Automatic annotation (TrEMBL), chains A, B:
SUPFAM superfamilies: PurM C-terminal domain-like (SSF56042), PurM N-terminal domain-like (SSF55326). It catalyses: thiamine phosphate + ATP = thiamine diphosphate + ADP. One of its GO terms (molecular function) is thiamine-phosphate kinase activity. Mg(2+) 2 binds at residues 58, 87. ATP binds at residues 117, 134-135, 161, 240. Reaction mechanism of ThiL seems to utilize a direct, inline transfer of the gamma-phosphate of ATP to TMP rather than a phosphorylated enzyme intermediate. One of its GO terms (biological process) is thiamine biosynthetic process. Its EC number is 2.7.4.16. This is Thiamine-monophosphate kinase. NCBIfam families: thiL.
Length: 348, 348
């Protein structure tokens, strides 16, 4: 639908498995000092010289996690990397390498895979990470992507989900809810397209939220900002499933409760306008909508002055004793228990 | 066919995604000093205290890499781990942790996943590796497995594919060709079963080769043996695609040629007998049949005395100048160029 049709179609059988991997990865040259040996042996060799090694992995399945009707392959390559880099950033550490494995059915020509890898290459370049390995094979149906991100961290800075204490401030980066609403717009246009393929959608008013869905970013800049501000968060997580679900993860693993203030949740004007258009409550979208890949963290109150006024950071609540529970404090000053509305792929 | 049908079937929707991961991994407790933080945060944290980090990853797809008709899920869980541990061993390093990601369609009940994870647990226990992360999600078709193995190595011992020199000896561990022939027997029995489901196959004569196919081992013992013998191989690879293909990898990456002697290739008596039964040439099976997960390596001639007579190790040839090429020297003393008969999943 939004995707260009490639003219040239080289069947994958023409290359064979080894030649395919070689072809797709030929322009990926290691740049990080910690990459001792990248692609081309039985395993990758990395040297973190006494720093900690961080590992995170994700599986993305066509028809479950992405829809190629409106997801250009280049964006998919980019996003597949980003969601994993985000997990490393959520440990207050820096991503350094990735491996990318891909399984595709015969309906994908070589040019499609090149598109995908060009998105991977863009992410590698922007985030300064090396592609160091992976696997390319055939699937019996559709496209499957498995990415492993590797990072490096100083043990004094690595931040877990489990360190929040009562009275800590709850901070979120950027704004939330956009990626979910972008998906709603794309799904709506897909339905329109099914009925009338000639229809040219005007997506201009939705540029911001569609970009949030198709081309999210990992907040590596925040890890660097916190270092500069000399703030060590007490707990941290990234927002992949929605604000509500992530707050509950921090509460559960830290053994604390939380008050989240509805009027503090940062929303982009496009999110507010599009929520109204869809007759949905923007707070509910912020709480339940996932894939924003912003960071959510807690800081000690003594660090408040250091982050105050920073446009990237919004204090949205504070942690309390576990027994008091986790609540949304509404604009009308009523308290509603937070519920995990995390996305469950088995309930489709 | 060879698999027990489970009586109890708990649909995966009953648990939801977070509860499912928690349930399946609840008995996996970190045991390695290098595992700082295992399952349960955005990323795993490992500490190799100055040693190198090794990473290897593989994607296994139902209908491409395995057939659940004759592959019990417990064995599949075991084998999925082994094939990745083997890659770490092939660097002359020791595997320490794994991540396992799984995507399954709704036809798999919880009990099937428990079976799979019990195989993963057995491999973890036997090889002393920790399960430290992964992902569990739904697929639109069949079962997909992505495993990443992590290892630790001393930079003085890590062995690449690229270090072989002319006059080095070519050594293989164990015996080869069994896993491929085991697969042929299982495929034959599957066809018989389709025609006559009442038929009880007598697989007893094929026990060794079926086990080679369904329950391979990673040669971690060889890495330890080489350390004890004070032998540092000059190059090393594991045999996943067949002896011929792996020898050519060593030759290409080291810039050398090779003479492989047909009469030295170690074959189990079951391999010889079953080859005759299938009217196949046992040497061709050893050269082209994959999945043995033995190690293939080269050593300097001065180390020959250290490995001589060890029942685990067989010298099967020697490396020569690149210009002389890579050949099989037959029993009749004729030279045949080695060809890569590696398995190509896009040619099925």
């Amino acid at each position: 639908m939004l995707q260009d049709k490639n003219e040239k179609r080289t069947p994958l059988e023409e290359l064979g498995e080894f030649a395919l991997i070689k072809h797709l990865t030929k322009d990926f040259k290691p740049t990080r000092p910690s990459t001792v040996k990248g692609i081309g042996d039985d395993a990758t060799v990395l040297d973190f010289k006494g720093n900690k090694t961080l590992i995170s992995t994700d599986l993305l399945i066509e028809g479950v996690h992405f829809d190629l009707t409106y997801m250009p392959l280049k964006h998919l390559g980019y996003k597949s990397v980003i969601v994993n880099l985000s997990d490393i950033c959520a440990m207050n550490a820096l991503p350094t390498q990735i491996t990318v494995s891909l399984a595709v059915s015969n309906r994908f020509p070589l040019e499609a895979l090149e598109e995908f890898y060009s998105g991977v290459a863009t992410a590698c370049r922007i985030y300064g990470v090396d592609l160091v390995g992976g696997d390319t094979t055939s699937s019996t149906k559709g496209m499957l992507i498995s990415v492993t991100a590797i990072g490096e961290g100083d043990s004094k800075k690595i931040t877990y989900r489990s360190g929040a204490k009562p009275h800590d401030l709850l901070v979120v980066t950027g704004d939330v809810g956009g990626a979910y609403l972008g998906l709603q717009v794309l799904e709506r246009e897909k339905e329109v397209f099914k009925v009338n393929p000639q229809n040219q959608p005007d997506l201009e008013p939705y540029t911001y939220i569609i970009e949030r869905q198709l081309k999210p970013e990992a907040r590596k800049d925040i890890v660097e900002l916190l270092e500069k501000l000399e703030v060590k968060p007490t707990s941290m997580i990234d927002i992949s499933d929605g604000l509500s679900s992530e707050i509950l993860h921090l509460c559960e693993q830290s053994g604390v409760g939380c008050n989240l203030f509805e009027d503090k949740i940062p929303l982009d004007p496009t999110v507010i306008a599009t929520s109204e258009e869809f007759k949905m409550d923007s707070t509910m979208i912020a709480l339940g909508g996932g894939e924003d890949y912003e960071l959510l963290f807690t800081i000690d109150q003594k660090d408040f002055d250091k982050i105050k006024g920073n446009p990237n950071l919004t204090v949205i609540g504070h942690m309390i004793e576990k027994e008091e529970g986790a609540h949304l404090v509404t604009r009308a000053n009523t308290k509603i228990p937070l519920k995990a509305q995390g996305w469950n792929s088995f309930n489709d």
